[in-house]
């Protein structure tokens, strides 16, 4: 049993230090529903606890820091730190959890070398350099990224699966989840705009035969056209039109190589250009050669 040693050291970073792309093991993962309000357990775990709130709210403390969780928030409680409930959950609280066996170096990194007594499991003589770890926020808001929730659900489903590749798949899925979380916390723009931009970008990518106007996209996603245009400029550094054109031209470039027998007229039609002449002019402006010449150079 780990001893409850406070980590309130001046200058100590209370985020979470994890290694990316290492082989991982998950001990348990599941869904939990509290029909009646309940507190979070008071404990120090020997495993990392990833907690995803599906529905409801919960206030959880780690050492002296409080985290207010709401729907589609994710909380990482690393092994070796003291966490406990601060009041009761809302009724019919529903959440998911994943308990991850930490790497030995992570134990030391997340307790700053003082969370375990000397000689206890997980205590290292010296922690690895900080550059070996990725720094995560304890609480990550995931409302704008449904893929994080989907990955969490997929991990739980795989934990119940019967497969000779189960452990390898779980390790890969967990690493993918952590990469998604790392990207999510580093996004510099607000979650509502992020969600709309991701949906608009996905629509552009999945319907290459269509050029959308700002008005069409704004009406589809129920936002002001100017707001949408400003967000594209802010996040991607280019206008909506320029973003679409860059996506389409890159798709055309790949298509020219993978489908060398398709006529340029059909290629233009497939990617929303007026005709092959419009496509040729635009392609040459970006890549310096015509589509036909690009094919010849690539084949040679």
From TrEMBL:
SUPFAM superfamilies: Homeodomain-like, Regulatory protein AraC. PROSITE patterns: HTH_ARAC_FAMILY_1 (PS00041), HTH_ARAC_FAMILY_2 (PS01124). The keyword Transcription applies. Keywords: DNA-binding, Transcription, Transcription regulation. SMART domains: HTH_ARAC. The keyword Transcription applies. Gene3D superfamilies: Homeodomain-like (1.10.10.60). Pfam families: HTH_18 (PF12833). One of its GO terms (molecular function) is sequence-specific DNA binding. Residues 198-297 form the HTH araC/xylS-type domain. InterPro entries: Homeodomain-like_sf (IPR009057), HTH-like (IPR037923), HTH_AraC (IPR018060), HTH_AraC-typ_CS (IPR018062). This is Arabinose operon regulatory protein. The lineage of its organism: Bacteria, Bacillati, Bacillota, Clostridia, Lachnospirales.
